[in-house]
Amino acid sequence: QAPYQQHYPVSPAQRRMYILNQLGQANTSYNVPAVLLLEGEVDKDRLENAIQQLINRHEILRTSFDMIDGEVVQTVHKNVSFQLEAAKGREEDAEEMIKAFIQPFELNRAPLVRSKLVQLEEERHLLLIDMHHIITDGSSTGILIGDLAKIYQGADLELPQIHYKDFAVWHKEHADHQKDEAYWLDTFKGELPILDLPADFERPAERSFAGERVMFGLDKQITDQIKSLLAETDTTMYMFLLAAFNVLLSKYASQDDIIVGSPTAGRTHPDLQGVPGMFVNTVAVRTAPAEDKTFAQFLEEVKTASLQAFEHQSYPLEELIEKLPLTRDTSRSPLFSVMFNMQNMEIPSLRLGDLKI
Predict the structure, then answer these.
(1) Distance between alpha carbon 109 and the CA centroid of its chain, in Å?
(2) CA distance readout (Å), 110 to 65, 144, 253, 345
């Protein structure tokens, strides 16, 4: 635990989010919304009280952010009051209501979480929850929803011993950055490749966040073949999919030096498993999918590269980007243009009393 201070340092990930927010680039890109459909009898007061207790329990939900003497700091507030908004609506308007609910946050005003209960029918409600990414991440969603369910059911939870600000202070004082930094600077020495995927139109001068989602599945036969390959090569599904993705990029771009960003959970210390907050870091994995290699050879290289990247994952991506001689380009992200993310965090199946969710 960190000794009491009026303000605490932020983690590198929080600093990045704060600065993007100040530059106006963030708008709602870093909001983390969730929508739960509740079927059954909802007790609004009990739900509001449970969310208030959740905020009392986890300091990060009572934290705000400011710039003091040129440094971004976080302040943990002793008491933060919470109101659960209530409204009525029609199911066919749900999409519009959700869009209207997601609004930018002011980072200097806690709590950076808001919630609304929309009644669609007598026993059918939508619970809308929105949080800023500066206080949460994918793994935190599971922790918070699990705690909310237990509190709603009246369980007695032990108070957490460690909070996010303790991690931020520890990370600043104790992380072994020198060994990690040496590894990353060595990985990205020499000329750095810029992925050039052929497109049927000009790349815009400013990055746009407009996009499309394509969904597809793999059939059982291919999945079984992949699983037996993993067993033979002692690799994981993550390594296999990352290798296949790199081969695809290499074929499209006709390049054999590829850098792909990949998010990591960032919870490298066992004490952090149950702590909500923004722990995610991004590692950059550099591989060489040259056409004279067999896939098995390349998979082995990806295995080594990913194991090493995860071993050195505590080194903040922001610091690496500052240290590298990168040409700034408003149309691209620095260091890599594509990301590969494998979502495998546990989101607990939910019960809130007798409610079906």
Answers:
(1) 22
(2) 9, 17, 46, 27
Q: How many domains does the chain have?
A: 2
Q: Express each pLDDT in 146-180 by its tens digit.
A: 899 899 989 999 999 999 999 999 988 876 688 89
Task: Tell me which amino acid residue 66 is.
Answer: D
Tokens 């009644």: give the residue.
119
Same domain, 260 and 195: yes
Q: Residue 14: give the domain boundaries.
A: 8-169
Tokens of 169: 């202070």
Question: Do residues 258 and 250 lie in contact, with contact meaning Cβ atoms separated by under 8 Å?
Answer: yes
Token pair belonging to 81: 């009051």
Task: Please give the share of the chain, as a percent, with pLDDT higher than 70.
Answer: 97
Instruction: Determine the Cα–Cα distance for residues 169 and 271; give it in Å rounded to an integer.
Output: 14
Q: pTM for this one?
A: 0.85
Per the listing, tokens 């959740």 go with: 54
Tell which of 151, 169, 187 closes a domain.
169
Phi, psi of 282 (to 5 degrees): -120, 130
| 129 touches 115 (CB < 8 A) | yes
Q: Give the pLDDT confidence of 75-92 residue by residue, as tens digits.
A: 999 999 999 999 999 999
Indicate which CATH number applies to the domain containing 280.
3.30.559.30
